[in-house]
Amino acid sequence: MFVLQLIALGLASVVSAALFPKGTLVKSIDEKGFRKIMQQNQTSVVAFVAPWCGYCQRMAPEYSQAAVGLHPLVSLYAVDCDADKNKGLCAEQGVKGFPTVKLFPRGDQLPSVTYDSNERTANAFFYWASQKVPHTVRKLGQVEDVEEWVAKKPSKPHAVLLSKDKKIPLLWRVLSNKYRDELLFAIHTDKKGNSAATLGVKGGDDSKSKVIVYPAESTKPALYDGMLKMDPLSEFFSAVIDGTADLQVADAETPISDEQVVLNVADKEVLVDEAVKDAGPPPEESSREKDEL
Ligand SMILES: *[C@@H]1O[C@H](CO)[C@@H](O)[C@H](O)[C@H]1NC(C)=O
Which residue stretches belong to region Disordered (predicted)? Predict the structure, then answer.
């Protein structure tokens, strides 16, 4: 029995290794893993596949490439519906053909969206997923609007992106989705780089975008002086929410990192990690340009 199980496990990993390229960022999950990602307040994409299906085999490298482009903002997963332990989940998710790709905008808190095109390319997955990330980012036209907006709900902390650009970067949308109920998000276009000073925040590099936060019950903003990336910003916002953020350091004159890469295609802007650049070309390599948040 034990030996048989080992053989079965070995075969299962050979099968999934055959479907997705070596080193893929697509995580294979089972029902338990699926329930876990449904608890997260983040956008996830799940491909329901069968190893023998030709469309799945053709989709796999493209889906894998989309995972690189979206990492670490949106995670891509795969469920092998051929495995007995996943059959209940695949039935529950209404999987009738392979592959079935579904996007869960915010764990199980919002209805899922099924990918309904036959164009299963990295680019198509990439833009579909980035457009579907829900957000609650408020656009503040004038610098005076910032204080008014903060004063409306003083019980919650507020975060404002003083941006060089009008569009809401995907990173900012992802963060607003993740912390939707705990922290309020806004964007203000700050072309000249003087809005922070107008709001009484010193420091930072005026040629770059900045993030300022107002802790709960406070009308005094603080400058975030870390990198404008998913992980450090998440860590910082979690600390702001639970009241442990060390906002004194916000006065340090450390310039914000210019390490980000923005994928700028049509009207979509996506901030990705520097690591992604080294991991291989994301979709539409020609359209990438270096920029700030
Ligand atoms: C997700 O959001 C809900 C409220 O919408 C909250 O109660 C829960 O703690 C959040 N879960 C995580 C993992 O942050």
Answer: 273-293
Fold for 27-132, please state it.
Glutaredoxin (3.40.30)
Domain 27-132 and domain 138-242, same fold? Reply is yes
Q: With a 6 A CB cut-off, is 234 part of the ligand 1 pocket?
A: no
Whether 181 is in the pocket of ligand 1, judged by its Cβ within 6 Å, is yes
Mutate to test the pocket of ligand 1, among 36, 41, 176 (most ligand atoms within 8 A of CB): 41
Q: Tell me the CA–centroid distance for residue 41 and ligand 1, in Å.
A: 6
Between CA 126 and CA 15, with CA 115 as vertex, the angle to 5 degrees is 80
Does ligand 1 lie within 6 Å of residue 136's CB atom? no
- Across the range 279-283, mean pLDDT stands at 44
Range 138-242 has CATH code 3.40.30.10: yes
In the prediction, which pLDDT does 126 show?
97
pTM higher than 0.70 for the full model?
A: yes
Which of 122, 124, 135 has the alpha carbon at shortest distance from 276? Answer: 122
Ligand 1 center–CA 288 separation, angstroms = 34
Are residues 183 and 217 in contact, defined by beta-carbon separation less than 8 angstroms?
A: no
Per the structure block, which two tokens stand in for 217?
């019950």
